Hints:
Low-confidence stretches: none
Structural class: alpha+beta
Radius of gyration: 15 Å
Strand content: 15-25%
Strand order of the largest sheet: 1-2-3-4-5-6
Number of strands: 6
Mean pLDDT: 90
Order of helices and strands: EEEHEEEH
Helix content: 10-25%
Oligomer: single chain
Largest sheet: 6 strands, mixed
Protein name: Fungal-type protein kinase domain-containing protein
Number of domains: 1
Amino acid sequence: FAPNLQLIDSHTEPDNKNCSMFSYQVKLDLSVYSDNYSVGCDCSTIEISIKFKWDASLDTFDDPFTEEQLDIPSFVCPTKSAKDTLGQITAYASAQLGSQYCTHAFSVLVVWDTAHIIRWDQEGTLVMTPIKYGEDQTLAKFFSRY
Length: 146
């Protein structure tokens, strides 16, 4: 579904080249590159970052389109663990945008059986409605069109 992209397992290899001055390690679960020679995590050449969380309590985003959510002003979960996930993916997007000359960046947050495609730029962040990637082909279409 993504013949022009290379997905690299980088969860054990932090980006020490671009992010050595940070007080935390930038270790993406999957680093997506558009070349055939990248290894590990390199925020200066990455195309898309992918983060996996295996517990639903770590999901940063509520679905604002469910009936019980319509009266809630924010789709960001208010729990500490969800906010920690938001801080983590924001830090990773900041590392990517800070080390590349680009107008925007994409990332994907996968929480159990749901994925969120996220677009980051200087103005803010756009989060796509949740994708049940086992039932819906939207995530595969995103990668194939990227």
